[in-house]
Predict the structure of Metalloendopeptidase.
Amino acid sequence: MLSTMMLLGILFGLLTQAYTLPVKNSTGVHEGKVRLKRKYSDETPDWDEMNIMDKIMEVNNRLRAPRGMSFKEGDIASSYIRSAITCPGNTCLWPKSVDGFVYVPYIISPVYDDMDRITIETGMQDISSGTCIKFVPRTHEASFLDIQPRYGCWSFLGQTGGSQTLSLQTPGCMWSGVASHEFMHALGFVHEQSRSDRDHYITIIWKNIMPDYINNFRKHITNNLNSPYDYSSVMHYGRYAFSEDGGPTIIPKPDPYIPIGQRDGPSALDLHKINVLYDCGATE
Ligand SMILES: [Zn+2]
């Protein structure tokens, strides 16, 4: 009798433990919701149709920060030592060379195959062809990008000094636009909708945002470089970013139907902003 009671007790314990698990593991619940947001549209989700930030979030939604690091806004890495998400006084810019170009040295993991390398190099060229930024294989430079297929698509903001990892997972992040997006973070750009003046151009629908991700919609004190707000920036979140149950989290105004986000690569205004930030026209 006693042993039956004990057995029942153990069974009950196991059952309650099993039932409480999904509640305890709140990230697991949210992962389900992240996936659910794909169902907002009548069309079948199609990677080619997704904007770049949505692609990044699709890959990063289970991203956990390695020791000593955290991620902000889904894909901006920061170390605990250097946690600023903006770059005050342009202290994180890559230095400009006397010839007027800004050289960004990089090394690239040998794990990537030829197609991966072409994709990543296309992401670089889409920036360099319209600006004074030149991505160059590192020779001896002290500060450089270390491009690796770690878990997720992410970058630090601006130049951190020394070796800085920029992760482009393969195959998930193997889109040239995703690479350009992460390179723009490395050049010092935050997401377009976190601009200080964004409330003139978009409405954030706070009630539709997953509660744990509210912080991803904070405004930052940004240098907007006298450039117009750019709905089609490669740095813009998608309309349903971090949605709780499929409702929009960002609505353009006054016209709510303005397309937001970018599928291909840097917009003309993105390139313009790089040119202004790095003073690219100055020596021409
Ligand atoms: Zn980003």
User: Anything to note?
Assistant: The two ends are 92 Å apart (CA to CA). The chain has six helices and nine strands. The chain has a mean pLDDT of 84.
